[in-house]
Request: fold
Amino acid sequence: MKKVQLNIEDIFDVPSAVIYEPDKFKSIRYVSIDSRKIKKNTLFIAIRGERLDGHDFVREAIKNGAAAVIINRRRLNRFNNVKVPIITVKDTKLALGDIARIWRKKIDAKIIGITGSSGKTTVKNMLAELLSEKYRVNKTEANNNNHIGVPLTILNTNETHQVLVAELGTNHFGEIPYTADILAPDYSLITNIGDSHMEFLKTRKGVWKEKSFLFEETIRNCGKVFLNYDDPIIKAKHSGKGNYISYGLSGKVDVLGKIKLFTDDGRPVMEIHYKKKKTEITLPVYGEQNAKNFLASSAVALELGLTIGEIKKALRRLNSPAGRLDVQRYKNFILIDDTYNANPDSTKASIELVGMIKTFKRKILFLGDMLELGSNSIKLHQGLTNVIGKSGIDEVYTIGPKMKYLHKNLIKKKLIAKHFTGRKSLINYIKNLDCYDSVILVKGSRGLHMEEFVSEIQKRTMN
Reply:
């Protein structure tokens, strides 16, 4: 098996690159931007971030064994006595992308790109788990889905991998075109088009315009796209274009999923129809949104050659990551930790799950602001009123300036509603909360740090 590595000719292909002491250059097997994570034959790229500047750690990287370093050409005079090859470039962030683009052409793994307004991380994790039943899989770690994370994910993929499942995120125009061009996917999937990052993408049309570049790049590479026909924008904008597989919960699609029912604790029982065959599957994860995430993952897995039997076997290993619709069962109540992030679609889906669960009677919500929603933010927060009413919620506790507008709507309803202006007062309230016979959801955008309130509720189980 031929090892994936960078040679000096590859470095010459990096725009604006100038290499000093090229005779000392050795083939590169690894690329890192973290001076603490240096192996033999590692290229260290000095990236300036919001808090730290990689140029301050160049000597540490060399001390730890870096074989070569890439720096901004304006910083060269700081490193006159360095004894490994130095490569100077105009912009080290762009150089990271250029290096990843070169590396991408050297790896044989099939590459799958995933984006969307919500569910993309869950689909990435689900799909990677399914595919690992048949293939050697690499995937985006944590939330490394931006202009830095996507190149690093590619550079962490080598000859041992058969498939890479890569997540692409965005909150500004231009991010997906940049990362999709570097990724050059063989397959791609957009989970949905919703009201996320509206502060910068403005409208759902803006969200589609940005995210659809992933499809365009895939088609340009003669790849295949997976179309969610339950999403009206995706269906209308991309129906019939290029090489594609359609999937959905209804209609005429290549992969059809039908939700037959939900178990008493909220797990979907699904029927999957594919190539004139059908099978019933009870998912180990919760809610309608996870049924949709599983259907998307299954559509890709089936296309890549997995059998239904292999998918069922892989399902046993599926679980919800912390903070992502993580259903925690205790003796007298259920706690749903969905604090990783929030937008209107994911929040509605989480509230609906609370309404579905029948094992405990009382339904309680702790909701924090949904951020980056732009000029429609107040209206979108108020829009949660109807789903709360339809889901049979008993109590709603809110925090954040935008959630105050939802609270004003809720006090007109026949349920208990209280708004908190400070974190300490909400924590004190939770300390005295009676959790008995309850289903409790904690949900909000990352900026609200709602996980702190989850911890307080968990402490109740230790008393």
Observations:
- The chain has three domains: 8-93, 107-315, 326-462.
- The mean pLDDT is 93.
- The domain at 326-462 is CATH 3.90.190.20 (Protein-Tyrosine Phosphatase; Chain A).
